[in-house]
Amino acid sequence: MNGTVIVIAKEPVPGRVKTRLQAEFTPREAAALARASLMDTLSAVRATGARGVIALEGSPGSWLPDGLEVVAQRGDGLGERIAAAFEDAYDGSPMLLVGMDTPQVVPELLGFEWGEYDAVLGLTEDGGYWCLGLRTPDRRALAGVPMSTEHTGRDQLRRLRALGLRVGMLPTLRDMDTPKDAAYLAAEFPELRVSRLYARVVHSAHPGLLFEQALGGTARVVATGIDGRAVPSLSELDRWSAPADEVDRLALSRCEGPVLDIGCGPGRIVTALAERGIPALGVDVSPRAVSLTTSRGAAALHRPVQEPLPGEGRWGSVVLMDGNIGIGGDPADLLRRCAELVRPDGLVLVEVDPDDDLDDSTPIILHTSTGRRSTPLPWARVGTRTLLRHARTTPLHPTEDWRTPHRAFLTLRRTA
């Protein structure tokens, strides 16, 4: 191609790029995907053999290949920055400007033959455009065109034609703005850097991140064993987020205050206890869970159960609802910790699996409806008989075993 290809881009800094990807990815993961997308785009530019210029917001990094010129972005708003990029890169030859969000672009597209055209435009599926070409800089082509709307592409085309320019149209592409866009690109263009990175990241999420998304309602999350079978007690997030039901209240009637709720989640148990006038505190490793609990007017603390907690040895009751006896993957160890937390005659209330003989300590995997998968999370699922066997290694003595048609509970009391 005879001419210049301009890439308008942001330095891939966590929290400043690809914020819409953060619906499912951490800021660092989103920035890594943006970096890979930018590198794919720059590789395509270099492969054209054309002069390459990057109009950059931020500082160059190791992602920038040799042979490309760098100009700083200037101007207020995206339209002004694009206009300035054309001016700063102009050397008398036609210019094609592209973004960093279409890593699937190929050199053949960037090497477009202008022929009799005065301008070039390539639209995106979401209503924007992935490239704009001008023979000479002209601020009139961009002034006042609304950016980042579902009709930006149409408005830009209308403006170019209103200036009397002959416009060549390039194929419509899909840019990478959302997790669904990233999944599409990874499936359709697996050879890209960004696709290979996506394949690694999407299957190695931290379990805490997916729990946060589930509690925040940004993703539907299910839990399975390593074998792929669902874990029902960890897939009932609708019940976790709802107020305490009749079975919950029946279980809590056994509690003696003050009560410590381990793995409190969104706080329905702590809230129900507070409504009964029983002092209660929830603890959880999820900041969102703690925030949701406190927003209900209940007390909660962001801390793992194995770290020092307020009132150690003075709690009247400790509760492990919704299968939270599985936290950490070692029920015996968790029971011993509960025994440390309650007072000498304190009570530990445990919700167990309805299958009395269940003894499953294999890790679990969290999955979102969009395909994200967590790294293995240590967990355990136990029935009544299994829990009784674990309790023999602790100073806790079983006092009651009771159940409803679909849920089962065991209470234990600390003894000398």
Automatic annotation (TrEMBL):
Q: Which InterPro entries match?
A: Nucleotide-diphossugar_trans (IPR029044), SAM-dependent_MTases_sf (IPR029063), Trfase_1_rSAM/seldom-assoc (IPR018641)
* Recorded superkingdom: Bacteria
Under the heading Gene3D superfamilies, the entry gives:
Spore Coat Polysaccharide Biosynthesis Protein SpsA, Chain A, Vaccinia Virus protein VP39
* Pfam families documented for this protein: DUF2064, Methyltransf_23
Which PANTHER family does the annotation name? Answer: GLYCOSYLTRANSFERASE, SLL1095 PROTEIN
Q: What is this protein called?
A: Glycosyltransferase A (GT-A) superfamily protein (DUF2064 family)
